Each structure stands twice: as structure tokens, then as C-alpha cells.
């Protein structure tokens, strides 16, 4: 799977980080997720999604992102 990113849709909720940490690292700690959500302050609601090198493109974060900011590029 190749994961696509649409930063303009990201709300900064960090659900993706929590889901990744729970499923990939087996810990309840969003900071352990294999992606980063970087706030672009003081721009209101501006976020940048960054996959880390540890991301294995499993797609769990795509399934649970409530905003559609993450998507499968092969399903466009
Ligand atoms: S990518 Fe989706 S789940 Fe992750 S912080 Fe942005 S809106 Fe939330
Ligand atoms: S694709 Fe999988 S490993 Fe990569 S950030 Fe999403 S949940 Fe984590």
C-alpha cells in the first residue's frame, strides 16, 4: 500500500498516532506512533503529516483518520 497525505484536511486530532502506537507498537502512547503531526503555529489549524522511516505502510492510520487526510493512493 502507498499512503497519500492531504495536509489541508488534517485537524491535528492525532488519532492516527494513537492507532499506530496501539497496533504497531502495542503501547497506549501516541508519541510512539510512526508518524508525526507537526503544528504550523500561529497558522490556525495548519498541520503537516510526516511519516517516519519506521512506517511500514500497513494502513491502519488510514482506516481511522476521521478527516480523510490519509488515503490509499491505489484507491484514488
Ligand atoms: S491525519 Fe487524520 S487522524 Fe491524523 S491528526 Fe490528522 S486528522 Fe487526525
Ligand atoms: S501506515 Fe501503519 S506503520 Fe505507518 S503510520 Fe500508519 S499505522 Fe503506523
Descriptive report:
The chain is an alpha+beta fold and 76 residues long. 21% of the residues lie in helices and 21% in strands. The chain is built from two helices and four strands; from the N terminus they run E-H-E-E-H-E. The strands form two sheets. Strands 1-4 form a two-stranded antiparallel sheet. A hairpin with a 7-residue loop joins strand 2 and strand 3. The mean pLDDT is 94. It binds iron/sulfur cluster (2 copies).
Features:
76 residues; alpha+beta; Alpha-Beta Plaits; two-stranded antiparallel ribbon; two-stranded antiparallel sheet; 21% helix; 21% strand; globular; binds iron/sulfur cluster
Estimated radius of gyration: 12 Å
The molecules bound to the chains, other than polymers, are: iron/sulfur cluster
> Could you state the order of secondary-structure elements as H and E?
EHEEHE
Q: How much helical structure, as a percent, in the residues?
A: 10-25%
- In DSSP terms (H or I, runs of 4 or more residues), the helix count works out at 2
The CATH topology turns out to be Alpha-Beta Plaits
**How large is the share of residues in beta strands?**
15-25%
List the helices and strands and how they pair.
Layout: E1 3-5, H1 15-25, E2 35-39, E3 47-51, H2 60-64, E4 70-72
Antiparallel strand pairs: 1-4, 2-3
Brief overview:
This protein is of the alpha+beta class and 76 residues long. Helices cover 21% and strands 21% of the residues.
Amino acid at each position: 500500500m502507498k499512503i497519500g497525505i492531504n495536509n489541508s484536511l488534517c485537524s491535528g486530532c492525532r488519532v492516527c498516532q494513537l492507532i499506530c502506537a496501539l497496533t504497531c507498537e502495542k503501547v497506549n502512547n501516541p508519541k510512539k506512533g510512526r508518524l508525526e503531526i507537526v503544528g504550523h503555529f500561529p497558522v490556525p489549524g495548519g498541520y503537516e503529516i510526516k511519516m517516519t522511516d519506521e512506517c511500514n505502510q500497513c494502513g491502519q492510520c488510514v482506516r481511522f483518520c476521521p478527516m480523510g487526510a490519509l488515503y490509499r493512493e491505489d484507491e484514488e
